[in-house]
Amino acid sequence: MASIAIAGAGIAGLAAAIALAREGHRVDLHERAEALTEVGAGIQLSPNAMAILRSLRLDEAVLARAFQPACVEIHARNGRVLNEIPLGERIRERYGAPYAVLHRADLQAVLLEEARQTPGLCLSLASPLAFVRQDGTEVVYRAGETERTADILIAADGVNSRARADIFGRGGPTETGYTAWRAVISRDRIPYGLRTDVTGLWFGEASHLVHYPVKGGSELNLVAIARSSRDPRPPLDGFAEPIRALKDTAPAWIAWPLRGMDASEGWVQNRVALAGDAAHAMVPSAAQGGAQAIEDAAVLTRCLSTHDNPVAALAAYDSIRRPRATRIAAESLRNLRIYGLRGPAALARDTVISTLPGRTHLSRLDWLYSPQPG
Questions:
Q1: Per-residue model confidence (pLDDT) at position 1
Q2: CA angle, 177 as apex, 176 and 182 as ends, to 5°?
Q3: DSSP 3-state assignment of 45?
């Protein structure tokens, strides 16, 4: 079994550490922060991710903190319901796993608790990892002031990955020109007419907003996306009611410039591999950022369990994951542009969405939602 160092204890790093340690590998997980406090709001876990969490026996703990929406309800700019894409029992029947939404902090709490209880996994906080060198037999890195070695190094240290810069010589993420404004509101502040049992997608003027329940349905997660601006609140005036009311209903909006990585570039250099946002940061318009981090963990584990040579295992991981993540990142960007259409192009978009049956829209996601080998 291999000795594995992982940089970053986000979703990718925690999931990979748990899965690898369970296979008997010795895992040292290093996180530069002194405490794990998840930044962000909600996260959507489609069946491709939930199937992996089930294989790790973590699905029940996640579902206990999650909500399973009945459908994706899509609205035109005037508020008219264009279509409903079935979720709930229909998606369980089709893919063998549920579609769940929850707060990112709740997912991280489940993973963190499991990591601390997993034999062979050592989690070190306030322990920034710095790459030193690698050769034909090992990777040398520094954790704090201590120099250590491992058979392989997994860089899951986020969109601003230090390891990606130091080892692969790549710069930071690319600005997309869009901003996501995020907020969470309690049930008693939700405007009349806004369903709380669904994932809602509303089109506005060259913008869109997504909402879904978190904290077991007691709160509503909001994400509005539009062209970047300096406004601390999202441009919701171009939406129908009740979305316009959310601009002042939400107690606080947090603006996040959307950035992405070119996922098509190589993720592996000999004994070092990228994972999570360090490899494939993508815009949220396919709701796959967290799911793809979980897929990374599953495929890494499978490859390291089926290849005796760590270098060959990482090469296999790259060949499996990179094409799929590249396609998903491109699809996410395509969705972002479609959601931001205006004028006649927006009317054409709405016509297509309303004409096709909801089950047809769902079937077009088979390639994305079907559980992957892992």
A1: 87
A2: 90
A3: strand
111-132 pLDDT, tens per residue? 999 999 999 999 999 999 999 8
Question: How buried is 102 (Cβ within 10 angstroms: 0-12 exposed, 13-18 middle, 19+ buried)?
Answer: buried
Alpha helices in the chain (DSSP H): 11-22, 47-55, 59-65, 88-95, 104-117, 162-168, 246-249, 277-280, 289-306, 310-339, 343-355, 358-363, 366-369
Q: Are 16 and 6 in contact (CB under 8 A)?
A: yes
Judge whether 152 and 140 are in contact, CB under 8 Å: no
**Do residues 67 and 101 lie in contact, with contact meaning Cβ atoms separated by under 8 Å?**
yes
Nearest to 277 by CA among 161, 112, 105, 123: 161
Residues 189-239 pLDDT 10s = 999 889 999 999 999 999 999 999 999 889 999 999 999 888 899 999 999
| Ordered domains of the chain (ranges, CATH) | 3-173+260-369 (3.50.50.60)
ω into 371 cis (within 30 of 0): no
Decide the pairing of beta strands 219-227 and 129-134. unpaired
Q: What is the DSSP string of 65-127?
A: H-B--SEEEEE-TTS-EEEEEE-HHHHHHHHSS--EEEEHHHHHHHHHHHHHHSTTEEEESS-
Q: Which of 7-11, 83-87, 133-137, 362-366 has the lowest mean pLDDT?
A: 133-137
pTM: 0.96
